[in-house]
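WP5 quarterly update. Target: ferric-chelate reductase (NADPH). Source organism: Leucocoprinus leucothites. Length: 716 aa.
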Amino acid sequence: MADLPPFSVTNCPATKVDITVGSQTPDADRVIRISHAEQYPLQVWYFLTAFIFLVTLANVVGLGLGYYRDRRRRQELGQAWTDADADAEPSIRRPREEMRGSINILRLPHATVDTFRALSFRWTVSIGRSYTLNIAEVVLTAVYIVICFTWSLINTTSTKGVKFDPHYYANIAGNIATIQFPLIVALGMKNNIISYLTGVSFDKLIYLHGMVSRVLVVLIWLHAGGRAQLGLVGKVAVTVPVIQAGILAGVALTLLSVVSIRPIRDKAYEFFLIVHLVLGVICVLAAYFHAASLDFGHFLWPSILLWGLDRVLRLLRIALSRIKKKAATPTSASVESKELSVHASAGVKPKLDFLSEHFILLTTPIPRFLHWRPGQSVYLSFPGVSLSPFEAHPFTIATIPATSTESDSGNQVQASTGKLKFFMRVRSGVTRRLLSHIETGKQLRVYFDGPYSSPPVLMGYDSVVLIAGGSGIAFTLPLFLDLVQRTKKSGPVCRRLTFTWTIRHVDNMSWIQSEISDALQNLPNNMILNLHIFVTGSAEAKAQSSLSASQEEELDDDDEKFDEHVNEIGAVENRGGVGSGGSGNTPRDGGISPVSPEGQNILASPMVQIHHGRVDLDKMLKDEIALARDTMSVSVCGTLTLAKTVRKALRYPRFVDILKGGPTVSLHVEAFGSGPVNENRPPPHFPPPLPRFPQWLDDQGLELSLHRFRDERFVV
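Structure tokens (predicted):
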């Protein structure tokens, strides 16, 4: 190259080249749009994760304080009762010393929290005949909507002065919707990390699942409308598969939101189950295909992962539920007595018994890997009885987990028989088919999926009040038995325990006579225990009642207007006889007698008070608050009317009373029904279960109870 002559350009003629060169100045609007489309969806997600973190923190702090108060209260109660009180009946001791003092400014946080609970969770707003939202849900919904649409439409004025430029908001709205698909899936899952972190049961998150879905429908069509305004041509034409996938996702989610409206679900629930599953899968897959082409697939693949993980965990639980407990080989007499109490039912098969024209009883061994907390529920399906492989319903486990027989300071701890017993109110549908199943003599097969839900953790409370209406005993009974059992085993867990049950006939006491009888035996003297049974079907009660027949029917739990899947008797662990149902009919041959001598002993106990008529909940709760100190828990299970009455009694702030030493009140509500429902349909707002299971799981079945639908979404 060095030997070459230099290249001369002096004699070259000038040449004009006609080339169109684009502007070298970057489009300022495009840079801003890209920045907003990337940052704004993340900022919305930061809001959501911050809120979840705050609720999680409150849950952790609450549990920690509960355990701390429980330990401190055990020590205080252990020293409070002197030997002079040892011979007094627990229900007779009603200390009424002055429990209110001067205002203590240190209790200001307690008063503030209690006031927040009263105003946020106990005041409700009715929306039509189908929805009832508390103030917290209304505010949360409004804030969520404001955040989503503010971040979608803010700063959408172009540099040329065009306001609400679709170049800006179209992609931002689409990205904000896309990044929240994992949230929709998580809120609708049974096994979801949000429930584990916050302590809010998955069935109480269903409202948020539907609310977020409907907001995303509007965001998706805002995105689609903006793109259509700009023109669907070229690479974004409707003939392009990626664009077609986006349209398909939007249409699928829109249709899903329409068929999810409660009146439609109630009219055609089985149709809703299938449509929910099919449209949900179509929406997520189509949205992923649409977003992945624009490098936003990482926002959506967690949705698919969460959905698959939930199904795998549920299938695993169902498989484990098929494994029964094995009989242990004892090595000593003491070990033998304990092992036999736990594994006595290893060879017991599920059994279905007729109690009366209105109730049937199912007995089943406890699955080996079924571990639950008092008040939790499971999803059950019944191959051969259910009309659809997708049909499964949640049932409350109204028994406490198995324990061994021990003696602690002379107090015997209740031993488990190794069985679960479920009382079922016979109506149309699956319970009617189960009643017919008795006559066939065939083995009933049931698949377990659970346990689920988040019942209250009753630790660290000075006073505990349990209120049940009719079949609501299925929820409050295990909480009661657990408190008594822990008191017998480890010392007092609370100073006062009040148990209230409203029933139609006194014979209904036979449902729980064995459990209550065991609980009242060897009861320690360091807990004030009161059981109030209100009988509304007696002649005395009807004579005293000022309510109309329709009002009486509305308050009664066994009202026929509620669906069989919505109205539950539940499961109790019963070592004695079980009485007939609320009708008082005589059982068939081989049935169970109404009221045993053991049940009569319960009625004769000074701790059990029988009242004719309805309970005045407002007066009762005010009396309990007046006798309580520091902290108080109220748990109620019954009809929506019962839940509304309890809320009304507790919704007024008591700021000054708490500053003077009055208790803060925590309320947990479990309510039947959701307004008018079709009597042939199960509760409408739970995601469908797994389809038909592998044949190798199909050996012999376990049993069920009847579903109690929770319309109350928050533990307060």
